[in-house]
What does this fold into?
Amino acid sequence: MGVFDFPLSKLKTYEGINPKPVDFEEYWERGLREIETIDPQVQLTPAAFHHPTLDCFDLTFTGAHGARIHAKYVRPKKFSGRLPAVMRFHGYSGRAGDWTNHFAMACAGFAVAALDVRGQGGQSVDVGGVKGNTLHGHIIRGLDDPDPDRLLYRDIFLDTALMTRIVSSFPEIDEGRLAADGGSQGGGLTLACASLSNIQLAAPCYPFLSDYQRVWEMDLDKDAELKEYFRHFDPTHAHEQETFTKLGYIDIQHLVHRIRGKVHMYTGLMDTICPPSTQFASFNKITSPKEVILYPDFGHENLPGSGDATLQWFIDELL
It folds into this structure.
């Protein structure tokens, strides 16, 4: 096996290097209080897509800063008692996907809510309005705004928590049986969701949005967001420490100590998009029951068997 990151022995103890803001905990407590005051104006509209055994709905609600957020919601037509639910999150720049992407879980007996991340490939609204660069990238969106509450991923993380609250309030849902899954950005949002809401099982696959400074120092900022930001707005890196500290507000490694549910993480040890060290920076800070499933020869790609393993785990634990 080739090695481009730390050896596995060091990965298992690595604690990350991206700074944590001193007011980090209050920052997220304030965000959670904010969404408690929102009137989400939930709308559940039958979708144009029809299935003989499943109900398909377009779910819309108002999230942080007034954005209208969209998700796909699928549930079995016939069920007895209340249903367990799975929150699903897509990769960077994507969308909730086709209805059929969620049918395996729904046919197994889960209700499924799949979020469209605001401003990306789906139907959710990006309200914008931040000071600074909006040309490329959501990681740096709001970084130049003096108010850290304008960081875009702050609102996206809160969208995951608000969607979970809304879905768990539906009369057919058992709020004590909630799960979340997703890959890449979706893996990061799975951990954010589990940190900010009552998720019992979380299955992130190679989670994004962790240990930004480590990615920068490895020169693996392949989407050029941080590199372009520094080139345009801080060419001598005079404010480098300040920049990474501000990014610390939206670094999932600082959130995951809040997770109370079980976590199964899937990691390819040859991943050059979300390097294994950045994934372990978050995983090692999780204090609840956890397991990492390693794919030594795989990178940021389909990890064979991971989808089946996740569904089987959800079935065994929640059905």
In short: DSSP finds ten helices and nine strands in the chain. The first helix runs from residue 8 to 11.
